[in-house]
Amino acid sequence: MLAELIELQEFEASEDRIWCVAWNPTGTLLASCGSDKVIKLWGREGERNWVCKSTITDGHTRSIRSVAWSFCGNRLASAGFDAKVSVWERDGQDFVLQTTLEGHENEVKDVAFSRSGLYLATCGRDKSVWIWEYNEEENDFACAAVLTTHTQDVKHLKWHPQKDVLASCSYDDTIKMFVEDNDDWTCASSLESHKSTVWSCDFDVTGKRLVSCSDDKTVKIWHAYEKNNREGIRSPSGVYPVWKCVCTISGYHTQAIYDVKWCSLTGLIATASGDNAIRIFREEERQQMDAPPSFSLVASNTHAHLQDVNRISFNPKEAGLLASCSDDGTIKLWRIEQRPS
Amino acid sequence: MDFSSGPQNLNPTIYERTEERTIQASDYDNDVTDEIDRREIFDLIRTINDPEHPLTLEELNVVDLDGITIDNQANTVQVQFRPTIPHCSMATLIGLSIRAKLLYTLPTRYKVGVNIIEGAHIQENQINKQLNDKERVTAALENNHLRAVVNRCIVPQNS
Known about the structure:
The complex is a heterodimer of chains A (341) and B (159). Helices cover 0% and strands 57% of the residues of chain A. By secondary structure, chain A is an all-beta fold. Chain A has one domain: YVTN repeat-like/Quinoprotein amine dehydrogenase (Methylamine Dehydrogenase, Chain H, 7 Propeller). Chain A is globular. Chain B is α+β, with helices and mostly antiparallel strands and 159 residues long. Chain B has a single domain (36-154), classed as GMP Synthetase, Chain A, domain 3 (2-Layer Sandwich). Chain B has five helices and three strands; from the N terminus they run αββαβααα. Chain B has a three-stranded mixed sheet. In chain B, α2 (91-105) runs parallel beside α3 (124-131) and α2 packs across α5 (144-154). The longest helix of chain B has 15 residues, at 91-105. Chain B is globular and about 50 Å long. Chains A and B meet through loops of A and α4 of B.
């Protein structure tokens, strides 16, 4: 192995399943949530030790599926099976409820702030993706679009790292890209190749590539071909980039893959799986410019947790620091150490 | 799911129950390693009640010993079940009850898969996908109405 996955710390965060962990943009706080309907914020105490700094208990009446930070770090949003989205605002050391967004018919599965800070997106079991626009004067969010392109349960959302482009993953086995076009939100492309539920996706640092993971036990790398690309790949719309699957990583996972992250600092890809494992992949250097990309497993821990690993998050400031959470109720912090090849 | 209409399969075939397990002397010996086997998994699910009939899943031949696979090294359990008729609208509920019973009784290390026997239902792929999506199963079991229906199925009746 060309790298090592070293366990730094374990928190017994809950008696129940932890669904999600997310670092704030400065990498100083880790938010977690789960079936116990509690949001916890974990921060550093001293050099190495991380502890629970605060707890938010009054947000939801059912499981909290995910939490997300705004790019400024002053807002936190949570998505619940109670059909609600809560937005929390920083007030000194604490977070207080700013607003509750209602509209989804049933379970909300994910929430995400756009990089620009203008939008918040939510999705859920009712097959819809909602885009909410932030109004600074009223300090509130108003619904800008309800997108019903997916034909099934929408599992996960990811905003492009630079543009107001949204990717959504679904139980209908596809990923869709949404863009704003003359004040209207529209589906710009549909990424079809997975054979089962797409649980998660992440852009690389440039936003020109996307990694996705699925119930079909594979990870796929997608490449965006812009209009008039030199490869001569035509976009069906003639306007929006076309996304093509350029690499499939298969044969490593024995159960569904619930999360995948593409580290913006190191370029490493990490996966969280129903087989209790965390795996780290690194892109091979290409011998020729036009060769297809290939990725190899550089580190793994097949007993990372005692049960399914639900979500992972790369610290955005400290290269190689990874957080994970599991059905076993624990959160773990890991350090990835790369060795020269 | 629609529970209001009457039973779909009005006259199901009823099968014999399996004999109870005979207790061995070694069953009480704490020094003997005794891993969970197929028969134990079967005993957990065979007494689940059918949602429509006052009969167990075993008596309706919805589950049998052959439909169960367990691998203690890999910590996996696979249960295959056979709806009584190929268009049974209760198939999802039956599968959910099997899943719930195993979720509440088996050690958490097991990865449980619940599937319809190939070719036994017109919507087997859709139902299998739903039954093996843990997020949807969790959400379903958080629903009070559905949980009550599932609990009625998995709590053994006086026989």
